[in-house]
Amino acid sequence: xxxYLCHARRVLPCDLFLRYYRVMPNYIRWRQKGATYFFTVVTxxxxxxxxxxxxxxxxxxxxxxxxxxxxxxxxVSVLMPDHLHCIWTLPKGDDKFSExxxxxxxxxxxxxxxxxxxxxxxxxxxxxxxxxxxxQPRFWxxxxxxxxxxxxxxxxxxxxxxxxxxxxxxxxxPWSSFHQHVSRGWLDPNWPGSSAVELPDIPE
Length: 204
Ligand code: NI
Description:
By secondary structure, this protein is an alpha+beta fold. 44% of the residues lie in helices and 12% in strands.
């Protein structure tokens, strides 16, 4: 996709170079803190419960509560009705993303059920372990390798509402970090327009 910085000065046209610079400092800033990961987290049996106002508030609160106890940054995210994709950067030397997700899912489930949300049946064994039918167990995780990998996953996330048929353009879907990236000048409001975007191969 975009060449590395040392090549950029020589070969890139001016506007591309500027666009490149607008993206880069943030990736470098996040990378210096610790490892960066891409995640996909899915609801139990893909029930489309996540974009109701209640669910959105509960999920946001669950994430910020966990962030307060165990900090991480979430520079890119998108909420779909039955799953979410996001990128996290953890503090240096910290790889406890599973514990963070466990707490986020647990807090959401607890509040969701308390607010009248329904769960689905799980097996008696699962129920004995305290599982409820709200989230699919586990999650998809990928460690971001470099700048290109970061940009591919960022683009994948912002294009997800289009990919799943919920929106014609990334800007049409409200629950996406695309809007923040536009307001900070990192992305054009009409992105991707007619330009081809290289996306990673991700199952969800
Ligand atoms: Ni998706």
